[in-house]
Design a protein that fits this description.
2 copies of one chain form a homodimer. Chain A has 2 domains: 17-354, Bira Bifunctional Protein, Domain 2 (BirA Bifunctional Protein, domain 2, 2-Layer Sandwich), CATH 3.30.930.10; 364-454, 3-Layer(aba) Sandwich (Rossmann fold), CATH 3.40.50.800. Chain A is 43% helix and 17% strand. Chain A has helices at residues 17-36, 50-53, 58-64, 80-85, 88-95, 105-114, 159-174, 186-195, 202-210, 212-226, 231-241, 247-258, 263-279, 345-354, 375-390, 404-413, 424-429, 447-454; strands spanning 40-41, 47-49, 67-68, 98-100, 123-132, 144-153, 179-185, 289-290, 304-310, 319-324, 338-344, 368-370, 395-397, 418-421, 432-436, 442-445. Chain A has an 8-stranded mixed sheet with strand order 1-5-6-11-10-9-7-8. Chain A has a 5-stranded mixed sheet with strand order 13-12-14-15-16. In chain A, helix 15 links the parallel strand 12 and strand 13 (395-397). In chain A, helix 1 packs antiparallel against helix 7 and helix 8 (186-195) packs antiparallel against helix 13 (263-279). The longest helix of chain A has 20 residues, at 17-36.
Chain lengths: 455, 455
């Protein structure tokens, strides 16, 4: 080749057919469960106004937004003084007024406010689309990746939380993955902050606790101290976070011994008791556990928070979400409560791949390939193929008359299930020689028999 | 609301559930046909290296690329002199080294060259993804729109063209749309240019002829003259373009009277004769016609070209494509022949919508909604819902105990098929009151009967 091999931007990926088939298996499974629970699809554009995106994901998030260069002479309005300074942050406003979607939550909030008169509340939507972040690429972290989100907006009922926990359970059961579902409540965390005398530090406490899994208790306590949480408060926090027993036992302990002095804390306990009373009779595959150390970093959560992790492989959460009381407030629509969960398709893929969880027939591509013996046979086979395809079977005719070995090699590489050989003899006798590519077995059958066999 | 209503960038769209359901019906139909013909999915990233994209779509195309602003201090390496000049085209290189996908063809060519050792030839891929163009937005033209492409690469066989014409026919038949499939051959157009003495003007002739449908013969001849095609050549071109009769008659006329002096022209005629001999026995719904005025603007086509148009509504082509002998050459891999067709989902949507082609059950969202009568009934209904959903029926329980009128209104707005009422009496008698939302009819049935009825 004369030129350099072409490449794609770092942190992005091409998906080959073998990967696509598996990815679609995940997306289809997730989508089917979403639909069975009454969630409806929406999509939003890849680009949003930059004003929709900035200020929503913290300083770090703003830095990680991919911005679209404006068309036209975008530097015309900038003065010489300003341009010579090369103050990127100032120039950005002239250079770019659009950015790529950073998650599906903020675009959804924008969507709800923009289409307020076109949707019916409670609005149950799912959304499966890629998002983009200019993060430093590393193993398992990409600059383009897919999120699968559900949200219900406009209903305060805990039934929505129940339903989303059922959805999580159902999806991973259908994917044949073993998980643990951990739930907690921001109101309980708020109550704890209150009783240890650090109400104003609730955000810092949540962010620190959220790292407990990754960094351990020592580092969390260090961070709490750095953030100005008092030594006494940190000491008082420890036994609370390490409460043991069933959900009921923990909730009773919180109610009677720890949180009687906090109104918000008691509300959280009452919500969790109610939630568990709905969940108990439901015979979920993965029984949800109450995990008081679950915090979730995002600060818009206000009630129940949920996360699911693989029990077959050490890895970050496979999905997570919770209740937020004012997500659309950022776009001027206040007091609309919602609850949502986001599934990370890439992590789910990695766990399934590493643990051999993809069913074998997912990997089948074309079911049947006709070998090409030349023009006369081609013209005989085309109408047969037509009938076979109309019955719903995936079938193709190798397009070139090349050596059979080459054609069989193609069928093997493509993981084709069966190969049909129709030469002069078969045409004369009105039969098809069918070869099972897995067993190597061969038989002569009629068209009808072939269709019945392959359906 | 305190703030301005949020908006999205001009030329982009949100898709509401009602639209998504219809769009997914189109995508699913197209995808199913692609799969039945042995095409496999791939996906490429939204962003490509800017060098992959520039110079591939002409000057106009380069101008319409959406570019991604680089991260970091992208103006650090630019001298004061350069920056003061504000020469946007020069600064672009520092500002941006990535761009958004402009079509699916160039990324596919890049993909094939980059993954040469991972794919099996002939490589049959489909790709359904959005593309972005900074075109002036107008009715029916968007800055983000979806393409559905198939390509076979690495096979010279005309069977590929046959197959793609079958695919076009099958897709529109499945969508219940009436179309005409027009085919032509670039080699014939080349032969015509040769015999009228304008071989070097073949590109200009093709571009001009391509507009015949839109602007009429007078404007086309004007353009040909402006582009320097001789008066004599233009005169000689007219009877050729207006040849009438069956494909066979036209091809015979071309072969015997018009193109005997052109080798490439005769090759084109021979290809078309062969193509029609494959197509004739196939009983297509939309019989393909030979249209010598079909040219297709893109200059990488080298053989058969194909387009399909609605016969129910005046509108640009719904799909189009053709044979190209050297698409991957731009990335250094020469002499790999391919053929592909691209379907425009947005235009297909518009035709289907205007002509009421979407089947009614496509618009059904949730099949069954349980009315919420309060906590006791909720807890009774949840396990029923579980069984119903596991049988594959889409079902939900209204999450809040509000007035029944409000709940029924939600069911109506969401186009729910049936509503289940389970109150105290039903719980006592072990039955469900089922209301058909379309007929208004109501009956009391058991859970098993309900599932059987709704499946």
């Amino acid at each position: 080749m004369a030129k350099d091999k072409p490449s794609i931007p770092k942190g992005t990926r091409d998906f080959l057919p073998g990967e696509m088939v598996k990815r679609n298996y995940i997306f289809d499974t997730i989508r089917n469960v979403f639909l069975r629970f009454g969630f409806m699809p929406i999509e939003t554009p890849a680009m949003e106004q930059i004003s929709t995106l900035t200020g929503k994901y913290g300083e770090e998030g703003d830095r990680l937004l991919f911005r679209i260069l404006n068309s036209g002479n975008y530097l015309a309005g900038v003065s010489d003084d300003e341009i010579i300074k090369r103050d990127i942050n100032k120039l950005k406003a002239s250079l770019s007024d659009k950015g790529l979607r950073y998650d599906l939550t903020v675009p959804f909030a924008r969507f709800v406010v923009q289409h307020l008169n076109e949707i019916t509340f409670p609005f149950k939507r799912y959304q499966i689309q890629p998002v983009w972040r200019a993060d430093k690429p590393q193993k398992g972290r990409y600059r383009e990746f897919f999120q699968c989100d559900i949200d219900v907006i406009g209903s305060n009922s805990l039934l929505n939380e129940v339903e989303q926990i059922q959805i999580i359970d159902e999806i991973f059961k259908n994917l044949n993955m073993k998980i643990v579902i951990r739930i907690n409540n921001r109101k309980i965390l708020g109550g704890i902050a209150e009783v240890i005398g650090e109400t104003e530090k609730i955000t810092q406490i949540t962010i620190a606790i959220d790292k407990l899994d990754k960094v351990g208790v020592h580092k969390v306590n260090e961070e709490l101290a750095v953030k100005g949480v008092s030594e006494r408060a940190i000491r008082e926090l420890q036994p609370i976070l390490s409460l043991s027993g069933t959900a009921e036992e923990k909730l009773n302990e919180l109610e009677k011994k720890i949180l009687p002095g906090s109104k918000i804390g008691r509300k959280g306990v009452s919500e969790m008791k109610s939630l568990f009373s709905y969940l108990e009779p439901l015979e979920l595959e993965a029984d949800p556990i109450l995990d008081l150390t679950l915090a979730r970093g995002l600060d818009y959560y206000t009630g129940v928070i949920i996360e699911a992790n693989s029990t077959e492989m050490k890895m970050g959460s496979l999905c997570g979400g919770g209740r937020y009381d004012d997500l659309t407030g950022i776009f001027g629509l206040n007091d609309v409560s919602g609850v949502g969960v986001s599934f990370g398709a890439d992590r789910i893929y990695d766990v399934m791949e590493k643990n051999g969880k993809f069913p074998e027939d997912t990997m089948l591509t074309t079911t049947l390939m006709f070998v090409n013996f030349g023009e006369k046979e081609e013209k005989f086979c085309l109408p047969l193929l037509d009938v076979i395809r109309k019955s719903g079977i995936r079938a193709e005719l190798f397009p070139d008359k090349v050596k059979i070995k080459k054609q069989m090699n193609y069928a093997n590489q493509k993981n084709v299930g069966y190969v049909a050989l129709v030469g002069e003899d078969e045409i004369k006798n009105g039969v098809i020689t069918l070869k099972n590519m897995k067993t190597g077995g061969q038989e002569q059958i009629t068209l009808d028999e072939l269709i019945e066999k392959l359906l």
